[in-house]
Specification:
Number of domains: 1
Distance between the termini: 21 Å
Shape: globular
InterPro entries: DUF551
Order of helices and strands: EEEEE
Helix content: under 10%
Pfam family, one: DUF551
Protein name: DUF551 domain-containing protein
Strand content: 35-45%
Length: about 70
């Protein structure tokens, strides 16, 4: 598993990933959430959402992400 630069590609919407916050929070669990308009149509805008409540997108500087590993099967 390798870290992927956000400038190269971004995870699929609602895909749970690990993100590397350069502002000091460290590694966080996050996903990209698409904004939807009237009728549920995607607006093209999105934001990072974090598993830890109280962390806002403007509080972090995400430059890299990593696919969240699957849990063990045993």
């Amino acid at each position: 598993m390798e870290w992927i630069d956000c400038e190269e590609s971004l995870p699929e919407p609602n895909q749970t990933v690990l993100v590397n916050d350069l502002n000091g929070e460290g590694v966080l669990i996050a996903w990209r959430s698409l904004w939807r308009g009237v009728g549920g149509k995607p607006t093209g805008d999105w934001q990072w959402v974090f598993q830890v409540q109280g962390i806002e997108e403007e509080d972090v500087e995400i430059k890299q992400w990593l696919a969240y590993p699957a849990p063990p099967t045993e």
